Structure formats: structure tokens, C-alpha cells
Amino acid sequence: MPKLKEFRQDYYYFSGKVSDNVRSLCLSAVAVIWVFKQEIGGLTTLPTALYWALLWVICALALDFMQYLYASVTWAVFSRYKEKKGFDQETELLAPAVLNWPTNLFYVFKILSAVAVYIQILRYLFGVIKPG
To answer: So where does this one cross the membrane (predicted)?
Structure first.
């Protein structure tokens, strides 16, 4: 029978994979958007749906960055605080759950932003590409 720590390890593994996939999908979206860009009078323009898709890409990648930035700073400060209080490296601690809430919110909003990217791209593609 699996132990709780094994479920936690699965969570870390799969959430890491989701983050990797969000980054890959966002960078792939930029490539798709680039294919459909238009040059008008020396200016690069995007159809409206692709413009919004690009903004969602930026949001998703910014949220990804913020998720890891917040988590790294929070856990560094938490562990340093505990060190200064005299806890050694082997002490088992219970951290307040509230410390991880922003990380989880960044994670969820990052995923929702990536979904919005592909909704916008599909919206555009269904409008311009018709079956033969």
C-alpha cells in the first residue's frame, strides 16, 4: 500500500511535468503565432485572436516565473529563519500551509493562461482554415 510521502512525490513529479509542458506549449504557441503574422506597410501585425494568444503566452510564462520565484524566496526565508532560531538540518518541521498558497495560485493561473492561449489559437484557426 502506498505511503503518504509517495503520493507527495507523485504530486511533485507530475506538477513539475505540467510546468515543463506549459512552457513547451507556450513556446510552441509563439511559433504558431509567428507563422500567421502579417506585414502591413512595414509593420508586423497579428490577427486579434493571435494577439490575445500572445498576451496569454506572456501571462503564462510570467506566472510560471513568479511561481518559482515566490517559492524559492519563501522557502529560503523560512529555512533561514528556522536556522537562526537554532533548528538543525535534521529537525522535522511543520510549515504553515498559507506559505504555499501563492505558489499554488500561480500554478493554477499559469495553467489557465496556457489553456487560454490555445483557445485563442484554435478560435483563429477554425476561422481561417476550412476543410477541403
So the answer is: 49-70, 105-126
**If residue 85 lies in a helix (H) or strand (E), which one and from where to where?**
none
- From the list 53, 63, 72, 67, the residue with the least C-alpha distance to 103 is 67
C-alpha cell at 62: 510570467
Structural Rg of the chain based on CA atoms: 21
Total domains in the fold of the chain: 1
- Ramachandran region, residue 42 (left: φ > 0; alpha: ψ -120 to 50; beta: rest): left
Q: Which pLDDT band, with edges at 50, 70 and 90, does 106 fall under?
A: very high
User: Residue 101 belongs to what domain range?
Assistant: 4-88+95-128
Region 83-90 average pLDDT: 85
Residue 45 near residue 38 (C-beta atoms within 8 A): yes
Beta bridge partners of 40: 43
